[in-house]
Design brief:
Oligomer: single chain
Order of helices and strands: HHEHEHHEHEHEHEHHHHHHHHH
Distance between the termini: 22 Å
Number of domains: 2
CATH superfamily of the largest domain: P-loop containing nucleotide triphosphate hydrolases
Shape: elongated
Radius of gyration: 24 Å
CATH topology of the largest domain: Rossmann fold
Bound molecules: zinc ion
CATH class of the largest domain: Alpha Beta
Strand order of the largest sheet: 1-3-4-5-2-6
Helix content: 40-55%
CATH architecture of the largest domain: 3-Layer(aba) Sandwich
């Protein structure tokens, strides 16, 4: 099962060049206070073929939004809650793009009107973007926002105020925002995004329509990962989707470029170890050195190997191939069932867990990897 190696180690570098909205889209937003932190670079990246109507997953949330947008019954404030990387910002970004387009024939922005061009360039005067200044959203940022909302939208339509990581607002900032939400100026739409709604003041929550985003199914998350990282094959996308817990944005931050090929090599070595013990040991020790040389990717590799053996256990139990299994090669599936029983597969997973714990205790990396590889190729 070959896995194509990423041309660039970071997915953001890979995809940035292929985006119509390009890097300007990342950096030219009208920021309300605070610098642009690199960690939020990814939220608004949009493939040039992605339209509001083409967002994958989140059908319940999208159906609601589409209905109110079509019938012009938008609430004045929404809070999108759900884990990081799940797609909240993508939906918010596409919603803003749609609302700021002045010539659309459907909900999808036309892409060429002045509103679309300004939004795409990150310079739309009616799109205000608030994100944490450091670790939190400060009261000065909300005060700045208030000043800007004193004027009507420049283009005469709607103004969209996107507040990222709203859960980081301190009490003073939250109270200041609450006043805006209690008496919202006309033609303004607040979109708040939060990984967790619980820290947000109940009074703010009561002024927003809260839409909870649930983790995506593995196949949908894998499809999204494949769109943003076309260098990955289907199996690699599925593995990352599973590890991300249905949050493709989280998967795309995994630095998997060097890890995926090594995972394939380890799996192949584990299978081959049955035929040639001396060669298998030599290969295992070589791979152990490769593993130890991974900088931040070793934890990800362990997760991928754990996933392989876990899916292998499911294959063994179900006999038939599982639709979302990462053991997608029928030959591997058969070999896996012939080679190990459930107890042996469980031992493999325990060996991986033990390696993870040893690494967490700062045990000798090379030694931990050698012990793990010898455990994995053993019966
Ligand atoms: Zn347009």
């Amino acid at each position: 099962m070959p896995t194509k190696k990423a041309a660039e180690p970071r997915w953001t570098q890979n995809v940035a060049t292929s985006f119509r909205r390009s890097s300007a889209y990342c950096t030219h937003f009208l920021l309300v206070g605070g610098a642009h932190p690199a960690k939020t670079e990814t939220w608004h990246l949009r493939p040039d073929f992605m339209l509001f109507s083409e967002i994958r997953g989140h059908s319940r949330v999208l159906q609601l939004l589409i209905r109110v947008m079509r019938t012009d019954r938008l609430a004045h404030a929404y809070l999108f809650s759900g884990p990081d990387g799940i797609g909240k910002a993508t939906v918010a970004g596409e919603m803003a793009a749609s609302l700021l387009c002045t010539e659309k024939s459907s909900l999808d922005p036309c892409g060429h009107c002045p509103g679309c061009r300004q939004y795409d360039s990150g310079n739309h005067p009616d799109f205000l973007h608030v994100q944490p200044d450091g670790v939190s959203i400060k009261i000065d940022q909300i005060r700045n926002l208030k000043k800007q909302l004193a004027f009507s939208p420049f283009a005469g339509g709607i103004r969209v105020i996107l507040i990222e990581e709203a859960q980081t607002m301190r009490r003073e900032a939250a109270n200041s925002l609450l006043k805006l939400l209690e008496e919202p100026p006309p033609d303004n739409l607040f979109l708040l995004i939060a990984a967790d709604a619980e820290p947000i003041l109940p009074t703010i929550l009561s002024r927003c329509q809260v839409l909870a985003f649930a983790p995506l199914a593995d196949d949908i998350a894998a499809e999204i990962i494949g769109i943003y990282s076309p260098e990955l094959d289907g199996q690699a996308s599925l593995m990352l989707a599973k590890l991300s817990g249905g949050c493709p944005g989280r998967a795309l931050t995994m630095d998997a470029g060097d890890v995926l090929p090594l995972r394939d090599q380890v799996v192949a070595a584990v299978f081959e170890s049955r035929w040639s013990t001396p060669r298998a040991v030599e290969e295992a020790l070589f791979l152990a050195r490769e593993m130890a040389g991974l900088n931040n990717g070793l934890d990800l590799l362990l997760d991928l190997l754990r996933l392989f053996f876990k899916d292998g256990m499911l294959e063994s139990l179900q006999v038939k191939p599982q639709p979302q299994s990462t053991v997608d090669d029928p030959k591997d599936s058969l070999l896996l069932r012939e080679r190990w029983n459930l107890s042996q597969l469980s031992d493999k997973m325990r060996a991986i867990d033990a390696a993870g714990k040893a690494l967490a205790r700062n045990c000798n990396r090379a030694l931990v990897c050698e012990v793990l590889m010898l455990d994995l190729i053993g019966n």
